[in-house]
Specification:
By secondary structure, this protein is mostly beta strands. It is built from one helix and 16 strands. The chain is globular, with a radius of gyration of 18 Å.
Amino acid sequence: MKTAKWLAPLAMTCALSGALFGAASAQAATCTSAQWGSFVIGSFTFYNDMWGSGANTQTICANSASSWYITSNQPNTSGIKAYGNSSFYVGKSLSSIGTLSSTLSQSTPSGGAWDAAYDLWDSANSVEVMIWMNYTGTATGGGNVKPASFNWSSSGNAVPVYTNVNIGGVTYNVYEGNVGHPVISLLRTTKTNNATTDLKAVLNWIKSIGYFGNITVGQVQYGVEVTSTDSTSKTWTMSNYTVTWK
């Protein structure tokens, strides 16, 4: 969970290319290592978004809208340091959307403290919905990364408001909290690096429990909330990433 990072100012980007022993140059990657750096490829905006206190270094690079990666080096301290992400703006009311889904195939590192997650916003940036796909904590609200929550157990775990909810064939534990604005987090009970997620079904389910009405869907983001990489560089690679809507 974080601020409306798509409002951050644009930063300078760099184009990287390479050739191997005189072969044709590899496809250029666009990168930024600036704290608030961003760049645009097609309908997607990429943000480095190192918004947290004590952040060290991070770079986000993209070969295309569907192929990109984040390399981060963050100290072993508490608190989210960054949410490097790809962002796509929808701008339609939930009821008028026929399809809204996303497919990803990613590789994630071992160790550290992080969650790879969708971050969905209404157009007014007043409601945030997170969908944790893979993460180093537990689906029951424990471990070294935890969702925002109003309720906590005596052992310090976030307490879900709903458990084992099936949405679009996927089972989630659901948490509700506030970080200056309402945030609801759905943690997959089975972590994955490869999936197609029915984002409209998720939003419709949240609407059905009275969390919001017929919102205008704003940003659909996917990225990595990095708390720690144990002071070493770790890389998350996204391939075949798509957002489909009509």
